[in-house]
């Protein structure tokens, strides 16, 4: 298995800056939420700095303490953090454009906000400001104030209960590869009505609340109410975009559904928890490995705007994040070359946001990757 000592050079022309911010607020369930976020953004020079640290060693150690890891991957190395990034801490914001459009990235459950470093760096190098949040209870992170937050036992228990639920396992055993729409929608409906999903959905909704809170904060940065390099520099009036991997995908869709400031979204090998009767009212793209269409067919069935379903062959679930470059365990990887997989995910993401946010002629349907098929495009206008 090929190993990497550095992430690939960013695709775009900008040098990429990265800064970290901490947040606290009280959520609608009255819980106190203490978050962090990494913000990736376009810059003109590395200012002679060394590249940003990929992941704090303390966070990596927490990963090995998670119940999910000890249950399923005990004693196995999963990924390495000894890899060079292609971004730099606390650079000046580029002066090439007056304002820059904004995207959010949501990592998978049990992951870390750094797990999207490659895609966030790529998008920032092409002129986007990209925010990746550490969500309390469902992800692991180190805040700027030094405090460590690991995945909670309750969240781990919920994920394990879902993965081991007899009804879910029975449905998973019946999932067909490339089912017809009616079959896939019925299967998705059956999954989403399982009682085990209620608690999972609560966590998705809390993550969506985190995103909305941080979006509020960005508006304050742009207005100058809070001082930062982003004062008067964020292109917010066109709307924001959001992309989520795995468990972050439902969060992405919930944000699109509930917040009109978000113009479009992308789910990377994700599901539809909490979206049973939801019209997202926003363009949405799903990039996934089969038989995942069974897990999210209902999104396009209900969405009044365009929904794209792209099936990708020869990939594993974690290939959609940095694991393609950091994995030290062959079992976690699909068959596609890491660079090809990175280019694929970045291309579909960039083309989608360029079209629906920036109104460029870019089209996801014009992309041609071997083994990537548009299985459905719906619009229920």
List the helices and strands and how they pair.
Blueprint: E1 15-26, E2 32-43, H1 57-63, H2 67-72, E3 88-89, E4 100-106, H3 117-125, E5 129-134, E6 141-142, E7 148-149, H4 153-164, H5 166-172, H6 181-192, H7 197-223, E8 234-235, E9 240-245, H8 248-258, E10 262-268, E11 284-288, H9 293-302, E12 307-312, H10 323-326, H11 338-356, E13 372-378
Parallel strand pairs: 1-3, 4-5, 4-8, 4-9, 9-10, 10-11, 11-12
Antiparallel strand pairs: 1-2, 2-5, 6-7, 12-13
Organism: Paenibacillus donghaensis
InterPro entries: AB_hydrolase_fold
GO molecular function: 1-alkyl-2-acetylglycerophosphocholine esterase activity
Please characterize this protein's 3D structure.
The chain has 381 residues and is α/β, with parallel strands linked by helices. It has a single domain, classed as Alpha/Beta hydrolase fold, catalytic domain (Rossmann fold, 3-Layer(aba) Sandwich), CATH 3.40.50.1820. It contains eleven helices and 13 strands. The protein has helices spanning 57-63, 67-72, 117-125, 153-164, 166-172, 181-192, 197-223, 248-258, 293-302, 323-326, 338-356, and strands spanning 15-26, 32-43, 88-89, 100-106, 129-134, 141-142, 148-149, 234-235, 240-245, 262-268, 284-288, 307-312, 372-378. Helix 3 packs across helix 11, helix 4 (153-164) packs across helix 7 and helix 6 (181-192) packs across helix 9.
């Amino acid at each position: 298995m090929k190993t990497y000592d550095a992430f690939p050079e960013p695709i775009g022309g900008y040098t990429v800056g990265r800064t970290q911010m901490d947040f606290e607020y009280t959520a609608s369930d009255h819980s106190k939420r203490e978050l962090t976020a990494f913000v990736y953004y376009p810059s003109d020079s590395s200012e002679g700095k060394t590249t940003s640290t990929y992941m704090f060693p303390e966070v990596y150690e927490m990963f090995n303490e998670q119940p999910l890891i000890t249950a399923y991957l005990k004693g196995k190395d999963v990924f390495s953090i000894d890899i060079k990034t292609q971004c730099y801490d606390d650079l000046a914001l580029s002066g090439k454009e007056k304002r820059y459009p904004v995207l959010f990235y949501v990592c998978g459950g049990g992951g870390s906000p750094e797990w999207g470093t490659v895609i966030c760096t790529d998008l920032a190098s092409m002129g986007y400001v990209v925010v990746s949040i550490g969500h309390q209870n469902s992800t692991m992170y180190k805040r700027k104030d030094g405090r460590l937050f690991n995945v909670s036992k309750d969240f781990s228990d919920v994920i394990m209960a879902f993965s081991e639920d007899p009804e879910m396992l029975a449905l998973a055993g019946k999932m067909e590869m490339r089912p017809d729409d009616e079959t896939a929608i019925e299967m998705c409906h059956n999954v989403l009505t399982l009682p085990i999903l209620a608690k999972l959905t609560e966590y998705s909704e809390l993550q969506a609340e985190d995103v909305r809170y941080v979006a509020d904060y960005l508006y304050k940065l742009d207005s100058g109410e809070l001082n930062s390099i982003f004062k008067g520099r964020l292109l917010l009036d066109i709307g924001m975009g959001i992309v989520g991997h795995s468990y972050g995908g439902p969060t992405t869709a919930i944000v699109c559904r509930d917040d009109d400031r978000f113009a479009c979204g992308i789910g990377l090998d994700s599901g539809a928890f909490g979206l049973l009767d939801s019209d997202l009212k926003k363009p949405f793209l799903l990039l996934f490995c089969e038989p995942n269409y069974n897990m999210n067919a209902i999104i396009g069935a209900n969405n009044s705007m365009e929904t794209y379903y792209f099936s990708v062959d020869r990939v594993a679930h974690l290939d959609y994040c940095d694991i393609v470059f950091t994995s030290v365990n062959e079992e976690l990887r699909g068959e596609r070359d890491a660079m090809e997989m990175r280019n694929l995910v970045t291309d579909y993401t960039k083309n989608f946001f360029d079209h629906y946010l920036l109104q460029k002629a870019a089209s996801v349907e014009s992309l041609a990757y071997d083994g990537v098929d548009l299985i459905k495009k719906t619009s229920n206008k």
